[in-house]
Amino acid sequence: MQKYQVHGALTAVGVIYGINYSIAKEVMPHYIQPFGFTLLRVGAATFLFWCYHFIYGGEPIALKKNLPRLLLCALLGVSANQLFFLAGLNLTSPINAALIMTVTPVLVLLCSALLLRERVTTKKALGIGLGLTGAVLLVLQQGESTAQGGLLGDLLIFLNATSYGLYLVLVRPLMQHYKAATIVKWIFLFGFFMVLPFGWQEFTSTSWQSIPPIIWLAIVYVVVFTTFVAYMLNAWTLRYVNSSVVGIYIYLQPIFATLTAILLGQDQLTLEKLLFSMLIFSGVYLVSRK
Predict the structure, then answer these.
(1) pLDDT one-digit tens code per residue, 255-270
(2) Does the chain have fewer CB atoms within 10 Å around its N or its C terminus?
(3) Number of domains composing the chain
């Protein structure tokens, strides 16, 4: 039963992130600049994580002992990750961003092998290869939209993928000793103070009263679902599966991004899309099997 809960949670994260590309893009840069948006996102999510922890009971943590790893996870998983992502998405297209993020599982697998000495099996390597092939083909078949991104934006998305991949590997030992909410509340608190110097000027210069209700809904989605819910679910799953299994689910993001576009009438379902999606699901299946 727990196995299905874990993979259900990871699928939910894939759905949330897949939808997020287009939603976050609507907010920037017309209403909020990327660093200001990052500060709002991290600050609001930090408040939610601490409220959640107070409501459902705290848990003592050896803060001094774990401080170096917590700070590194805050830097990679919150500060660098989110600053690079929103700044990159502001400069490139959602299609480019989804394509570049597919390198994350490969980076997670390599880092897991080097840092945690996780064994790279033939089945796992084949699964990541299938997933990567399917994700790249699914994104590239969108056509000319892949050429709309800027080089700097693409580079920032790649740095985001790298920092997030390292975060998934480094945070796992903490998740095996403490509850997900305990770890995430601390890394977001530290991450907030890391983001603050970069985002304060853009945050304070934002014309909040001119933001329409539909954009506020987009902001709420990014804060509540893409940040609070997704980080909590990812953190919880790391207690039961290794980092490479969590990483492979990033390949679901292009699928759900495409499905969202189809439901909104922005895209059409084709045989190629179905075949590429089957490649991704096959890769996820291979990596998730023991």
Answers:
(1) 777 777 667 665 566 7
(2) N
(3) 1
